[in-house]
């Protein structure tokens, strides 16, 4: 069995790096504009490409430069998470091996990238402020430019569900 799959993901490091990137980008409100964040990742190029539907995106590095391609035919909200996830792989140093991007994967690198992406596009500090005035998942998802499913997952994962009026 692959040693990477036996190691435990460092989710605290993933959240810390996402928060540092948000701080460097001077982002304190929703929605997080990834084009503004990308300026703080040296030598990064991001663009949409036509892929088969099962491919959300990919990240490659070549000669010290980083390239992220996302599936241009996928919804914008999905692409935002995909790009944030691929930025995570760069920031976390996951640029040397090929991994299949599956949400819920047992691969620690994927868990770290998912945690980074969630913190990057739905920052906990911003979410806590927003939830004090926006008390349902649908409106929060709209505010953060994410899917209702992604916001629901984030609310549960951060244990903020008791602050909601409704899941509508």
Report the principal-axis shape: globular
Q: Please report the total strand number as a whole number.
A: 3
Please trace the helix and strand order, writing H or E for each element.
HHHEEEHHHHH
Strand numbers in spatial order across the main sheet: 1-3-2
Any guess at the CATH architecture of the largest domain?
Answer: Orthogonal Bundle
* Helix share, percent: 40-55%
In CATH's first tier, which class of the largest domain applies?
A: Mainly Alpha
Alpha-carbon distance between the two ends:
43 Å
* Structural class designation: mainly alpha
Q: Within the CATH hierarchy, at the fold level, what is the topology of the largest domain?
A: Arc Repressor Mutant, subunit A
Mind telling me the C-alpha Rg? 16 Å
Count of individual helical segments: 8
Note poorly predicted spans. Answer: none
Strand content: 5-15%
Q: How much is the average pLDDT?
A: 90
Tally of distinct domains: 2
Q: Which key terms come to mind for this protein?
A:
168 residues, mainly alpha, Arc Repressor Mutant, subunit A, 11% strand
Description of the structure:
- By secondary structure, the chain is mainly alpha-helical.
- The protein folds into 2 domains: 7-121, Arc Repressor Mutant, subunit A, CATH 1.10.10; 122-168, no CATH class.
- It contains 8 helices and 3 strands.
- The protein has helices spanning 3-6, 11-24, 34-38, 76-91, 108-121, 124-131, 137-144, 148-157; strands spanning 44-49, 57-62, 65-71.
- It has a 3-stranded mixed sheet, with helices on one face.
- A hairpin with a 2-residue loop joins strand 2 (57-62) and strand 3.
- It is globular.
């Amino acid at each position: 069995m692959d040693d990477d799959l036996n190691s435990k993901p460092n989710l605290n490091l993933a959240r810390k790096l996402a928060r540092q990137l948000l701080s460097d980008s001077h982002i304190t409100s929703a929605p997080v504009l990834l084009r503004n964040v990308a300026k703080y990742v040296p030598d990064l190029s991001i663009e949409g490409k036509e892929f088969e539907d099962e491919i959300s995106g990919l990240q490659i590095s070549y000669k010290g430069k980083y390239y992220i391609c996302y599936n241009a035919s996928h919804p914008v909200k999905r692409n935002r998470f995909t790009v944030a996830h691929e930025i995570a792989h760069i920031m976390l140093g996951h640029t040397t091996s090929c991994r299949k991007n599956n949400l819920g994967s047992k691969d620690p690198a994927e868990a770290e990238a998912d945690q980074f992406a969630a913190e990057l596009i739905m920052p906990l500090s911003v979410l806590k402020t927003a939830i004090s005035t926006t008390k349902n998942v649908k409106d929060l998802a709209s505010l953060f430019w994410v899917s209702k499913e992604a916001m629901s997952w984030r609310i549960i994962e951060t244990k903020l569900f008791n602050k909601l009026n409704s899941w509508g």
